[in-house]
Amino acid sequence: MTYLNSGEKIRQLRKAMDLKQDDLTSDEITKSLISMIESNKRNLTWKTAYIIARNLNKYYATLGQNITPEYLMRAEEDDARQDIRKNIDELKEAVKTGALDEKLIHHNFKQLAESIIKFNFKDELMEFKILRGTFFYNNDQYQEALKDYLDALSYANEIKAFNKVAWLHILIGKTYKMQSLVDTAIIHFIKSLDITCINESYDSEKIKAYSNFNLVICYEIKRRHDLIFSHINSFRKLNWNDPEFKIFSDRLELIEANTYRVIGNYIRAAAIYDKLLEAKGLDLETMFLIYQNYTLLALEEGNAQKGLEYNAKAKNLKEQIDISQQSALLLYEARCYNLLEKHKKVFELLEFAVKLVERVPNKHLIVDIHFALIEAFMQYKDFCKVETYLNEVEKIIFKKELKNRVSELNSYYIDYYIEIGDRKKAREYSKMIRSKNYLVP
User: Fold this and answer.
1) Cβ pair 231, 218 in contact under 8 A
2) What is the pTM of this model?
3) Helix/strand/coil (H/E/C) assignment for every residue in 335-391
4) How far is CA 95 from the centre of its chain?
5) At CB < 8 A and 24+ separation, what contacts does 264-273 make?
6) Dihedral, CA of residue 135, residue 282, residue 353 and residue 138, to nearest 10
7) Above 80 in pLDDT, residue 139?
8) How far is 409 from 433, CA to CA, in rounded Å?
9) Which domains does the chain have, with CATH numbers?
């Protein structure tokens, strides 16, 4: 985009109406002065801007347009900054709503970056990096998102914008979490908390809420039950007056119930699930998750019928849930029917789930469903199908770089080779799981 200085604006406006410099002269302003301003040999003053704007409006008024002295006086950097801010706001809305064409938005990002770099607008460049990083994050392009977020963090640290630094640590932590780099994510969420505690700002409570919430999710993955309860208690002490706080609060109460379920306190877990279901204003996503986790509770108690009942309640919300969640429900339903020893139904559900899950971004769920199918065919002694799904899931694990699932994969290979009587192969996979031998070289 081209931006004009004051003299270029006057010349462009004059020529657009086919006017000569004489047409803008008066007792207060000469042709010579206009010529020098247009050729950038003289700076435009406010007094002269008022006179030239008034003289231009004698002609532009016929078109219903009004040229202001403020427009003439505004430097090209100011015009550029105004347009850039407007473009950033428009792109923010598009990224937030998802109402965008990928090719078009990449073109817009490129143009916007060129304008920002041309004028060396550092604050706007930081905002742009955060915006583009968020677009990449929403589209599962985590490496690209990290690069933009880390660039923005570097500048935010440089100018000591501590509020922005704290938010960026949250964004970076979430991105690492999505890459299964949970320990690194935890470091960034703790940094966000520490920075906010030292440098209080207008939205400190909100930042602390986001940090604690994400820490709880990370510690749930790490199965650090003590730290889950600790950060839930920290969250409850916050004074963040926002509707989003209730959603976060409900989700954390759900995680608290899940933690009690994992440690075997089924009575306490069920009591919290019931309390949440009785609460007013429960959002549909949280309601779905309660039914989903109640299904898991029933499975752990060995009550397949009750599991199917809660799974059906979750499925009734299917219009509000995405494909990932539908695939997970099929897996849980299959587990219930497996308890009831209805193997034909198990195969039907899992084979449908494996087709459905191909379209979802949740790569761990894809692996989970493949592993469930392997277990099902192993029970049924269909070793040809076991081998087929082992090969499929191995490709998925290595293609999607899921290093933390390799040991599980190798354990299934061991089971498979033991079942078909190939002990040599089973031992090979056993060695892959061990880091080293302690006697035999």
Assistant:
1) no
2) 0.73
3) HHHHHCCCHHHHHHHHHHHHHHHHHCCCHHHHHHHHHHHHHHHHHCCCHHHHHHHHH
4) 11
5) 266/297, 266/300, 266/301, 269/297, 270/294, 270/297, 273/297
6) 0
7) yes
8) 10
9) 6-74 (1.10.260.40), 342-441 (1.25.40.10)
Query: 150 is written with which tokens?
Result: 């880390």
Alpha helices in 98-181 (DSSP H): 102-119, 122-138, 142-158, 162-178
Residue 88's pLDDT band, with cuts at 50, 70 and 90, is confident
Copy the structure tokens of residue 318. Answer: 């299917």
Q: What is the pLDDT of residues 354-372, one digit of tens each?
A: 888 877 767 888 999 999 9
Q: Predicted confidence band at 99 (pLDDT cuts at 50, 70, 90)?
A: low
Indicate the burial class of 291 (C-beta count within 10 angstroms; 0-12, 13-18, 19 or more).
buried
Length of the chain (residues): 441
Q: What distance in Å separates the CA atoms of residue 334 and residue 328, rounded to the nearest whole number?
A: 10
Q: Average pLDDT over the chain, rounded to whole?
A: 90
User: Pick from 81, 123, 89: which is nearest to 108 by CA?
Assistant: 89
Angle, helices 122-138 vs 162-178, to 10°: value is: 20
**CA distances (Å), 309 to each of 268, 287, 288, 312, 313, in order?**
20, 15, 13, 5, 7
- Residue 363: count of CB within 10 angstroms of its CB: 18
